[in-house]
Amino acid sequence: MASREHFASRIGFILAAAGSAIGIGAIWKFPYMVGTNGGSVFIFLFIICTLLLGLPILIAEFMIGRRGQTGAIQSFKKQAPHRPWFLIGWLGVITSGLILSFYSVVGGWILSYLLRAITFRLSGQGIDFSQLFQQVIENPLEVIIAQGAFMLITLLIVQAGVKDGIEVASKWMMPLLFIFFVLLCIRSITLDGAMEGVRFMFVPDWSYFNSETFLLALGQAFFSLSVGICIMVTYASYLPKEENIVSSGVNVATMNIIISLLAGLVIFPAVFALGYSPTEGPGLVFMIIPAVFEQLPFGQILLIIFFILLLFATITSAISLLEVVVSNSIGERLHLRKKAAWLFAALIFIIGIPSALSFGTLSNITFFNKSIFDFIDYLTNSIAMPVGALFISWFAGYYYEKQLSQQELQTTPLLFTVWYTIVRYIAPIAIVVILIRGIINYALV
C-alpha cells in the first residue's frame, strides 16, 4: 500500500490553501458585496470577521486534517472512533460536490467570456453587455460545453496528484494572479476620477454600520475562506507533523484579504472613473467590467488578462472541491486517483447540467421560488457550510482535549487561549446567527 502523499513544500501548501480560499469568492463575490453594502464599512467588518472568527475555524480544520493524515471522513473516524463525528466528513464531501456542480457553471461562463475576449468579440460600439450576459447563460449548448471544458481542466490537474498537480498549478497560478492584479490595480487607480472609487473603499460611511452589514461581512468571511466543507481538513492531511499550522493559517487569511482588496482596487476606481454604479450586484464582473475596459487604452488586452485571472482563481477553488471528493474515495490507494478523478468529475458535471440550464431551458423549474442554480447555491452556502463550520468548531473546542490542542498548535499560551475561547464559545454563536438569518431570509422570499 502506497504511503500518504504530502505537499513538497510549505509554500506549496499555503498557495494551494490560499487558492482554494480565494476563488471567485474574492474576485467575483467580494466586489459586488462591497458595492451593494456601503463600501469601506463592509470591508472593515470583513477583515475583522476574517481574522477573529474565520481564521480560528480555518486553523481548527488544519489541526484536524494534519492530525488525521487521511481523507475527512476517515480522519474523523480515526480520531473519534464509534462516534458520529464522521458525518462532518460526509457533509463536507457531499457539499463540496454540490458546490462544484454549480461552481463549474460559473467557470464555464468565465471560459466563454475569455474566448470572446481573446477573439475580440467583447469590443466594438453598441454592445449591450447586459443582453450579452443573458444570451450566454440562456444558450444551452454553449453553457454545457463550457461547463464540461472547465471540469476537464479541473480533473486533469487533480488526477496528477498533490505534488505534481495541485501544488504545481497553485505555485504557477497564485503568483501570476497576484502580479497581474497589482498591474491592473495600478492602471485602474491612475484613471481620471479613480480616487472616488478609492474613497468608496477606504473612507467609512458609518450609516452602513449595522447588524445587517455585520452579518453579511461575517458570512462573506466564512465563504471566502472555504471553511465548513472539509477542504482545509483534506489539504492539511497532506502536511507533515512539523508544519506550523497557526502561521500557515495566518498566511492564508492574509493572502485572502490582500487579493480581495486588490480585486476591489481593480474594479471600483475604474467603475467610478467611467461613471458606472458600484451597486450592480452579481453581474458586476460580466456586465460592467467589459464595458469599463472597453473605454480604457489597451482595454481589450486588459480585459483578456482580467478573465485569465478570474479563471485562475476559479480553477484553484474547483480543484480543492474535487480533491475533497477524490481524496475521500481513494484513501491511501493512490493508484486509483486517475479513475476516481474522471469518475467523480463526470458525475459532478452531470449533476451540474440542470444548474447550467436553469437560466434558459429549465428556467421554469423552481424550488421555493428559486432557480435550480440559486437553490443549490443557497442550500450549500447558507445552510451546509455554516452547519459544517459549527460542528467543526464544536469538535475542535469540545471533543479535543485542551492539552492535545495546545500540543498540535504549538503557539504561545496567550494566542492559544484566544483561539480556544473563539472556537469553543464565540464562533459557534456567530455561526448559529448566520444560519438563522439565512433561514429567515429564505422564508421571507
Describe the structure.
This protein has 445 residues and is mostly helical. The chain has one domain (10-352): Hydantoin permease (Orthogonal Bundle). The chain is 77% helix and 1% strand. The protein contains 17 helices and two strands. It has helices spanning 10-36, 40-68, 72-79, 86-118, 129-138, 140-159, 162-189, 195-202, 211-225, 231-236, 245-273, 284-294, 299-330, 337-356, 372-399, 402-409, 413-444; strands at 366-367, 370-371. The chain has a two-stranded antiparallel sheet. The longest helix has 33 residues, at 86-118.
A few lines on this structure:
It holds the Pfam family SNF. The chain has 445 residues and is an all-alpha fold. It is 77% helix and 1% strand.
Descriptive keywords:
single chain; Hydantoin permease; 17 helices; about 450 residues
* Helical content class: over 70%
In what range is the share of β-strand residues? under 5%
General form: globular
Summarize the biggest pleated sheet. 2 strands, antiparallel
How many β-strand runs?
2
**In terms of per-residue confidence, which ranges show pLDDT below 50 for 5 or more consecutive residues?**
none
Strand arrangement across the biggest beta sheet: 1-2
Gross CATH architecture: Orthogonal Bundle
Number of domains: 1
**Class derived from helix and strand content:** mainly alpha
Element pattern in H and E: HHHHHHHHHHHHHHEEHHH
How is the CATH topology named?
Hydantoin permease
The whole-number mean of residue pLDDT values reads 87
Protein name: Sodium-dependent transporter
Keywords: Membrane, Transmembrane, Transmembrane helix, Transport
Membrane topology: Multi-pass membrane protein
InterPro entries: Na/ntran_symport (IPR000175), SNS_sf (IPR037272), YocR/YhdH-like (IPR047218)
